[in-house]
Design a protein that fits this description.
The chain contains 10 helices and 12 strands. It has about 375 residues and is of the alpha+beta class.
């Protein structure tokens, strides 16, 4: 009779333990007061590739070729029931016979079955191997990014030094040459024959082109690293002011400007002004062969951005070259046809990209071109356009 009661008690204990351990997905082990395995859940068998015969009734330290026989773990487990203790986040880094190297986190506490009046230990095991790998990878990437940031900072300082050298050491002698050649043309050209005057004119023109190229390269370089100071921009006022400034330089050219209603945009004032300078300079330049050139500036609103455009009635281009127009030093027309450094549109693209926008072009030979660029809308603009 007593034996039957004991068997029933053991069965109740097993069922009680199983009802607990099978409810979770992580490996769980229920131990008796002697630290022998009463029960484990399916996840334990699946994780450690063992069978019930190799597990149940065995001392935990004997499981899996004594892989759990860790001195610090022994101390923690053996103190749970006598001292009503528990432990959390005990990390085990171990080479398991069947599943290889794993990093596990163990948590254990005492549980009590009123039905059988017995104390047991519930041991929860969490496999954090992949998480640790991810953390290590994040640390490695962060370290790489840190080194990369240091390299970029060094490159930026080197670029600043280069820009200073270009702007001073190269521009200074060129400015001198340009000034002297201008003086020679103004005061002494009448002392030269036609050939000499031609050479002097070429020298003066070449120094001006080189100065313009250096200035454009500096603008291109600064547009990548210049600190942006966003503010609301009156695009209509800015476009008109830039056009009037450029058009005053070439009064002999007849141009008609048509500025459609332009909503304000959010951006850096000086950088967006440079965009208008470059796009309108192109429009003016490529319409000069027309008796009356027409330049139109407009905008359409799409979702949270403004799509501005500068359209001209100039010589246009073939669409197969549209993507190349924004490459540094790309020239669609020869220097003999139209002057320029081949950097202006690359500057436009870089500035617009820094504002989180896009820029693209459309055109047709002898029918003109249209350049589009997007900028973020302003808060004031919402509901008005």
């Amino acid at each position: 009779m007593a034996r039957n009661r004991a068997e029933v008690a053991v069965q109740e204990a097993r069922e009680y333990a199983e009802s607990i351990v099978e409810t979770v997905r992580e490996p769980l082990v229920v131990l008796d007061t002697d630290l022998k395995v009463i029960s484990v859940n399916h996840s334990f068998y699946q994780t450690f590739k063992v069978t019930p015969e190799d597990t149940e009734g065995k001392l935990i330290y004997d499981l899996g070729n004594h892989q759990w026989n860790i001195s610090q773990l022994r101390v923690l487990l053996e103190e749970i029931i006598p001292r009503s203790k528990q432990f959390q986040n005990f990390e085990v880094d171990h080479e398991f016979p069947t599943i290889g190297r794993k990093i596990m986190v163990l948590n254990a506490r005492q549980i009590y079955s009123k039905g059988i009046g017995a104390h047991m230990i519930l041991l929860a095991i969490e496999d954090i191997t992949e998480r640790k790998k991810a953390e290590d990878e994040i640390k490695r990437l962060n370290q790489t990014l840190k080194h990369r940031a240091i390299e970029l900072e060094a490159a930026y300082k080197e670029l600043e030094t280069f820009s200073y050298t270009v702007s001073h050491d190269l521009r200074t002698p060129l400015l001198g040459m340009n000034g002297l050649s201008r003086v020679l043309i103004e005061r002494y050209s009448n002392h030269l024959d036609a050939k000499g005057q031609q050479f002097l004119s070429i020298m003066h023109s070449s120094t001006q082109k080189m100065l313009q190229l250096i200035d454009d390269l500096l603008i291109f370089s600064r547009s990548e690293h210049q600190e942006m100071k966003p503010s609301d921009i009156d695009m209509g006022e800015m476009a008109r002011a830039v056009f009037e400034e450029l058009n005053s330089i070439i009064p002999e050219q007849t141009l008609r400007l048509d500025i459609k209603p332009l909503p304000p945009a959010r951006g850096d004032q000086s950088m967006i002004r440079q965009v208008f300078i470059n796009l309108l300079s192109n429009a003016i330049k490529f319409t000069r062969l027309k008796e009356t050139g027409v330049i139109e500036i407009g905008c359409r609103v799409k979702e949270n951005q403004n799509i501005y455009y500068v359209k001209d009635s100039g010589v246009g281009f073939e669409m197969q070259y549209a993507g190349k127009l924004f490459e540094v030093f790309h020239r669609h027309h020869s220097v003999d046809e139209f002057e320029g450094t081949g950097i202006g549109l690359a500057i436009v693209q870089r500035i617009i990209h820094r504002h989180g926008g896009k820029v693209w072009a459309e055109g047709k030979v002898n029918e003109g071109a249209i350049f589009h660029f997007t900028l973020p809308r302003t808060e004031k603009q919402e509901g008005h356009y």
